[in-house]
């Protein structure tokens, strides 16, 4: 009986129970997510379709370096022969800094300005002193002219016996005194003018300019800091920034004493940067430093790079191979790199190629050489290992997005 009562209770309908959750809200959420996914896919496909489809080819190094064997290999670093930490000539508070790392500056370009309050005050004082000196000259000049007139008149009266000779002598003495004062006033004006020029230089010294053209590699000061050309300690800065002349880059390597006899000035060298293993840079020995390091038993050798490129930066690691001299009976082979003929186009009257860089193209001007089969020699503007666009369409321009076509 109790079991039957319990079963009846389970079959009873609860009028006040909450209704079951509706599935309509879930369908709205799913529909909204689907719309977002479809819109994102359409945007991605549209952006991809806007990229120009191109075919590419690698840039291949050519040259006769294979004909010359390496007599010695060494490691070193790229260094700058012209690098400077630029500072102000005077101690002062930085008013503004106009440089940033990576920025190129030209010779004489303003890099920073110091607070010119003291220098301006000194300039105003020197200008006032010069004006006072000129006023004194004008006053004494009038007195000299009057004294000369009096002396001339008394000379006539003395000759006629109307005045005593002592009065005339007193007038002459007064005239000579005023003349001496006039000369002194002129010299004082010259000193004041020189002081004004020094004050102007003091104002100019609050402006820090680049001593040569180069690239900023370090920014050392901020507005509000105190800078000084002397190392005074504490929180005083000694420089505004460091600039490097990228045209002065070369390689320094240390060669063991036992092998330095194989190296000579003017020797051909092949340099390979650690960052770009496939790029062989032609170089030559500049000089052998006539000093040895007794601790490491090495001699320093300077090597000049024949190619200049923005990828070469100071303190990069580099491996160099010193090459033996070419034999006269071996024919000279073309130098530079080789690209397909279809990659070279004429734009604005110059030979140019499109280089692939991160799904975009960069237009480069190149110097072409002789024809090499179905390709052409490029003497400058490209490096081995880069990728160029084949048969670029006329509407392709610098900076356009591209996608590489699948190989046929």
TrEMBL record:
What are the top taxonomic ranks of the organism?
Bacteria, Pseudomonadati, Pseudomonadota, Gammaproteobacteria, Lysobacterales
Alphabetical GO CC annotations of the entry are: efflux pump complex
What Gene3D superfamilies does this protein's entry cite? Answer: 2.40.30.170, 2.40.420.20, 2.40.50.100, Helix hairpin bin
What Pfam families does this protein's entry cite?
Answer: Beta-barrel_RND_2, BSH_RND, YknX_C
Q: Give start and end of each Multidrug resistance protein MdtA-like barrel-sandwich hybrid domain.
A: 82-228
- Its transmembrane ranges are 27-45
Q: Which GO terms describe its molecular function?
A: efflux transmembrane transporter activity
- The name under which this protein is listed is Efflux RND transporter periplasmic adaptor subunit
Instruction: Give start-end of the signal peptide.
Output: none
From the UniProt record, list the coiled-coil ranges: 130-188
Top-rank taxon:
Bacteria
Domain CusB-like beta-barrel, chain residue ranges per copy: 251-323
What keywords sit in the KW lines?
Coiled coil, Membrane, Transmembrane, Transmembrane helix
YknX-like C-terminal permuted SH3-like domain: which residues? 337-404
The cross-references to InterPro entries, in alphabetical order and at most eight, read:
Beta-barrel_RND_2, MdtA-like_BSH, RND_pump_MFP, YknX-like_C
Q: Which family does it belong to?
A: Belongs to the membrane fusion protein (MFP) (TC 8.A.1) family.
Q: Which PANTHER family match?
A: HLYD FAMILY SECRETION PROTEIN, MULTIDRUG RESISTANCE PROTEIN MDTA
């Amino acid at each position: 009986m109790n079991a039957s009562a319990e079963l009846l209770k389970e079959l009873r309908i609860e009028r006040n129970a909450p209704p079951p959750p509706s599935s309509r809200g879930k369908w709205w959420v799913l529909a909204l997510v689907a719309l977002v996914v479809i819109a994102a896919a359409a945007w991605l496909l549209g952006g991809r379709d806007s990229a120009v489809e191109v075919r590419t080819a690698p840039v291949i190094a050519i040259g006769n370096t294979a004909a010359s064997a390496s007599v010695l290999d060494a490691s070193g670093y790229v260094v700058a022969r012209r690098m400077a930490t630029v500072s102000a000539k005077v101690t002062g508070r930085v008013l503004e800094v106009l440089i940033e790392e990576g920025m190129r500056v030209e010779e004489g370009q303003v890099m920073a300005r110091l607070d010119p309050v003291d220098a301006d005050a000194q300039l105003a004082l020197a200008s006032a002193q010069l004006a006072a000196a000129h006023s004194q000259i004008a006053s004494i000049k009038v007195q000299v002219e009057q004294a000369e007139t009096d002396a001339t008149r008394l000379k006539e009266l003395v000759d006629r016996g109307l005045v005593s000779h002592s009065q005339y002598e007193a007038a002459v003495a007064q005239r000579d005194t005023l003349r001496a004062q006039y000369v002194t006033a002129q010299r004082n004006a010259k000193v004041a003018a020189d002081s004004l020029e020094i004050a102007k230089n003091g104002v100019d010294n609050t402006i820090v300019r680049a001593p040569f053209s180069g690239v900023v590699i370090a920014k050392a000061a901020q507005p509000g800091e105190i800078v000084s050309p002397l190392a005074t300690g504490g929180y005083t800065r000694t420089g505004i920034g460091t600039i490097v002349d990228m045209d002065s880059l070369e390689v320094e390597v240390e060669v063991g004493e036992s092998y330095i006899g194989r190296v000579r000035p003017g020797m051909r060298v092949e340099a390979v940067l650690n960052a770009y293993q496939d790029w062989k840079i032609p170089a030559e020995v500049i000089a052998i430093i006539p000093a040895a390091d007794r601790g490491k038993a090495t001699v320093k050798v300077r090597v000049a790079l024949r190619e200049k490129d923005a990828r070469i930066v100071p303190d990069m690691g580099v491996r160099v191979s010193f090459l033996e001299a070419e034999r006269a009976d071996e024919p000279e082979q073309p130098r530079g790199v080789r690209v397909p003929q279809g990659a070279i186009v004429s734009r604005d009257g110059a030979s140019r190629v499109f280089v692939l860089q991160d799904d975009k193209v960069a237009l480069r001007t190149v110097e072409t050489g002789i024809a090499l089969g179905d390709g052409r020699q490029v003497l400058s503007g490209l490096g081995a290992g880069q990728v160029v666009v084949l048969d670029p369409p006329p509407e392709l321009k610098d900076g356009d997005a591209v996608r590489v076509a699948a190989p046929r």
